[in-house]
Each structure stands twice: as C-alpha cells, then as structure tokens.
Amino acid sequence: MKQKVPVSTIMTKNVVKLNLSDDLTKAEMLFKKHHIRHIPVVYSNKIVGMLSYTDLLRISFADAIDDDEEIVDTTVYNMFTVEQVMAKKLVSISPETTIKEAAEILSQKEFHALPVCEGELLVGIITTTDLIKYLIEQY
Asked: Ranges for the CBS domain (predicted)?
C-alpha cells in the first residue's frame, strides 16, 4: 500500500455545502438529493460547522422511515436553526494530510467526515466511505 498519499487525491472537491443562514429543510433536501450524510456549513466561504444526517434525525424521526421521500415535514425543523444543530468544534485537515493520518483521526473520533481546508477556506471533504473505497481499490 502506498505510504504518503495525500487526501487531496481521494477527497470530494465539489462539496455540497450549506450557508449558516440556510434552514434545516434545505439541509434535508440536500442530504436526500445527493445521497450524502455530511454537509459542511460555511459563512462567507469559511467553514463554521458540520451538519450530519444523524444530527437531523436526533431532532426529528419523521423522515427516518423513507429516505426517498421528496416531501419534507418542516414542523420540527422550523423550531431549530442550522447553527443550533450543527457540530461547531471541528477537526479539519489540509489537502496535504496523508490518507493514513486522516484514517487515524477518524478512527479515534466519534464522527465520520473531515473538512479539508486551506486556512479557513473549505476545499474538500473526506469521509469514512472515501477511505473504505480507497482501501478496496488497493486490493
């Protein structure tokens, strides 16, 4: 297996993201439309948080049954903002961070995605799914 491969080679570069001012209804629609589980939250293109689909499920079980449902029940979502629900204490990595280092961070933490940043600017995201796909390609 290659030793010093940077995460920039496997990270998602065209990141689906939310603005801090977006609502949770938009977040759920993005999760479902793009079949993803993590969305970075930005303010003026700077990362300020990470919202996971699990974060939404914690406040509403209404949509846990049918992921393909296009209609979103916004009653519960109107009670919270993205900022209230998102994770704010982020661990981010640079594009030069090795895949091994990213895997070590994710294996020790209780989250499954890392924003990839140059300074405060979001340039990508890497998830445990990206790491598993990379491992599969190696064999």
From this structure: 11-69, 86-139
